């Protein structure tokens, strides 16, 4: 693949080599070993391109669509370790940057700083994954605005150390929109990311995912689960079900359980019983009855 961006030659070469991995044996092995299977190859190409150019990427899509698996696959393709932050309303500066604690040097008590995931990723020059970024309080994430823009620096408030990210550092974030407890990202934060919409995996890609990520081998059952998933996704788009009902993660759990228990009961435990509304529960049960 030829890269047309005005980049230094060494960066161009690195980007071309990274993109070429899509077609080589190593990439195919990664997919077979449970890596992310993109519904459209452009998703992977664009994510690799953005990260290779030093951009941050924001994976946006429904729950269970594979955003975390996508991030893990990118980490493996770049041969980069990845530090993770799981956002919540309790996320604070210590959760991001680290904290001070008492330690001993011999018999002498000292104050030691334990670095957090942001500091570790910057100093190691590897990836930082921020999951459910819109679950954090609006006042928390601006602490790392300098990490997310061209400066790639932060002043650690606990040590007063100026930390500058090593080459290779990159940020991947994920977002589920419209869920209880989430807040809209402010424009300053959103503008620091390239947004990549991650849709549900369907059809042959989903079949391949079931084969590589579950213990289910019965092709007839696998095809029925693919059909079930397609019907659930259609119902979500029609407003009949919440996104939770079409979670690919939940579907894979049902596939695994169906190896040892009847498929309808596997669907009940993995999908139906997670839904809050009785109307939705009955809808999914009726679909399962029809197919299985």
From TrEMBL:
First and last residue of the signal peptide: none
Entry-linked Gene3D superfamilies: P-loop containing nucleotide triphosphate hydrolases
Chain ranges of the AAA+ ATPase domain: 53-202
GO molecular function, one term: ATP hydrolysis activity
SUPFAM superfamilies the record matches: P-loop containing nucleoside triphosphate hydrolases
A matching Pfam family: AAA_5
Protein name as annotated: MoxR-like ATPase
Species for this entry: Oceanobacillus polygoni
